[in-house]
Amino acid sequence: MRFFFTTFICAFVFTTNAFAADIDLTVDDFKSAEDHILNRSAAFITQAGQNNRATIIQSGAKAGSGNYSEINQNGLNNNASSEQNGDSNFIKIQQTGSYNEATATQNGDANTIKLNQNQDYNSFSGSQQGNNNVFDLTQNGRSTVNLQATGNSNTITANMPNGVSYSISITGNNQRASSIGQ
Fold first, then answer.
1. Domain ranges in the chain?
2. Which has fewest Cβ within 10 Å: 10, 33, 76, 160?
3. Distance (Å) of CA 160 to CA 144, 163, 175
4. What does the buried/exposed string (b/e) look like for 43-65 if buried means 16 or more CB atoms within 10 Å of the residue's CB?
């Protein structure tokens, strides 16, 4: 007999109708993440305003099941942090506003980090250790990025404004990195 356990940890804060589009995108991203997450262990945080802090730490998913983490922040001076250990994990961080900071760390194989920061003076620091991992970043405005990928067959795609300072460090074989200026 085979049992499946599903765990959902949800924290939603809706202050305006402006989040409706973000919720639709969240559903679409979760559906695409389902391709590699068999037993979903998911955590969602949505915050609006200034000086918010959000932290998600996930580990211990069964082999091949993965975790899904999503943080949405709208406002100034917010901080988002997500850490995942294991394989087939997915982190999505969406920050709209200025002076926001985000960090994401994954240890394991076949993991994905998706970041979108809109407006000015935001920063992101990300680290992945393992094989077949993916960074997918989009930043607008005068923002900074520091990425580190260690392992084999990792992919980094950074869509950033022209003239922005960023650091990408890749160690291993068969790495793919591309940076697109806006």
1. 7-181
2. 10
3. 9, 9, 20
4. bbbbbbeeebebebebeebeeeb
